[in-house]
Sequence to fold (763 residues):
Amino acid sequence: MKHLLSTRDLDRATAVGILDVAEDMADVATREVKKLPTLRGKTVINLFFEDSTRTRTSFELAAKRLSADLITFSAKGSSVSKGESLKDTAQTLAAMGADAVVIRHSASGAAQTLADSGWIDAAVLNAGDGTHEHPTQALLDAFTMRRRLHGAASRGKDLDGLRVTIVGDVLHSRVARSNVWLLNTLGATVRLVAPATLLPANTSGWPVTIGFDLDEAINDDPDVVMMLRIQAERMHAAFFPNAREYSRQWGLDGERLERLRPDTMVMHPGPMNRGLEISASAADSSRSTVLEQVANGVSIRMAVLYLLLSGDREATA
Amino acid sequence: MTNDSNSMLITGATLPDGTVTDLIVAGGVIAEIGRGLSSADATVIDADGLTALPGLVDLHTHLREPGFEQSETVLTGSRAAAIGGFTAVFAMANTSPVSDTAGVVEQVASLGARHGYVTVRPIGAVTVGLAGEKLSEIGAMAQSRANVGVFSDDGHCVSDALLMRRALEYVKTFDGVIAQHAQEPRLTEGAQMNEGALSGELGLAGWPAVAEESIIARDVLLAQHVGARLHICHVSTAGSVDVIRWAKARGITVTAEVTPHHLLLSEDLIRSYDTRYKVNPPLRRNEDVLALREGLADGTIDIVATDHAPHPLEAKECAWAEAANGMVGLESALSVVHAAVVESGQLDWNDVARVLSSKPAEIGRLAGYSTPFAVGNIANFTLYNAAASRTFGTEHLHGKGVNSPYLATTLPGQVIATIHDGYATVLDGVLVDAAEVASKARAYRG
Fold:
């Protein structure tokens, strides 16, 4: 792997390989000294053009646990917020000798633009580009599902036959896109549930089934229900009438939660709007994997940094 | 040049209808047409194997001057036009200050005349400052020395229905035409590419076809209602072709243009997020490309216009959403039309002469282009080597912009010579020196 830009171009073997390395990394977190010397002398730069405390700190922790030198560039208070272009920032980082750049950007395709530009030779790791992809989120979600299913016997396994329902703002969700591709590659079947306004206008190329009715989806007994965050700004742009109606139609409330099997996983990429797309009872139930997802995020990001930075970097798939 | 008389003998040129002839150009006009012509003191241009086309006319060019000289100037844009075989361009109004007063359009026209590579006809803004709120001084621009006949807020849609109605009615007074940039603004807020399967996958906000088609549908009905002439800029969807076909069948006086890039390129290129492919209206589906070619072939779409939109490097060296819309097109237009619809057999060279010269001139009320290659006509034509093939590169671009989607691709044909008002602006495939062209232009004007 030279870069990690999307899950769409990950094949099954590569994806399972990343999950397996993440298992090893997860073991590190259980030790007294939660640190490996693997990336000593490597420089990782977190380049965050968009605020994201969770993803940024997860990558920071991952890099630190691998003993890499880490610098975080955040948009606020840096030259990035003063109109410096992606090109200038990238060239600056290249001059500093970055080995990997973890980029979060509000523009779809920004990570690919950086990787293809020739401005910088470092490995590019997409930490979320606009409404396009967020590959490490999907990998950590898959990792979480696999662990719940197979526990200590997870290594080498995919998600064959798993039935995943993703609910909410698919249109604007890079998490949904990355999950759709990755889950399909790993053998899961994906169903998307949302109001028509929050689905892309044309999903003919997506390996999914589409529905509008959450109750119908729940009655079909899914193995995983993944709730997506509703951004506040959507409520003012005629995507749906108001929060109350959204919550009634597409929120995972206590009543819907009770209709799920006890072992059905309830997932959310965070941050959650409790009471809107997910009720407190669902978020805090034993079905909820929300905190496991956070912990697993560090393991996945360690795995990806390790694979990108150790040994020979091959051409991108 | 070897003589001062400016006379030229072009030997063995193939006219659009296929006849092979010699041409003598003298005193700014086509003096003689026929086989075996001779002229003692004339510069001889061997046009054996070359196709002679009437001087190309671009109804949709962004020359950027005044205001955006870092992108293009009247001079650099004129040179890009000449090397592409053009002898006249209509310069869009989104300059700074906006071309919404007689003063600005006269300045643009006089710069064009002074440089002399092409005839520059300014387009006037429909609304003051392109703001879509009140009509600009259309009458003053029409009656100015720039003689403006085409009015457009291009880049912005005249979306207010009442304002559009008034504009259509008002330009009737001056035999003008409104060239509409058909884009419903609310349906395209933040739009980045054609809305469809690919936009959903790439996570780029969609620019739905209906945002173009609904405005065209409204405007053809308005044009019918008030009996005015309407021109639709850069038609990009199959649905738009259908609406225009329907309107023409009803006798509505609507004309339409398609850009070379919409005839050749489709949205699949955007998968790379390469910002050279970002343009407005966006590249569409392959089905749309095919429908546009058909529409051009059957006359539903009247003309090809470049929408030449130069940008400085930094406007494209960035993430997709931050990049400027637009492609340069003057230098490559004829080759792209050749590749898209001539090689497919849908258009012959007579058709090319119509869609790239006589018809755009007619829509823009530009005199002298209705009967090309007639004795006594002002000599505006280009000699094209249709047999050539080249890997298109920045060395073929002569404006300031290098934002061409065709770089490193193979395109057919090459312009060998361009004759404007009886003097050469391009010879042997190379632009004639600016000072010489300017002096010839001065001499021509007298």
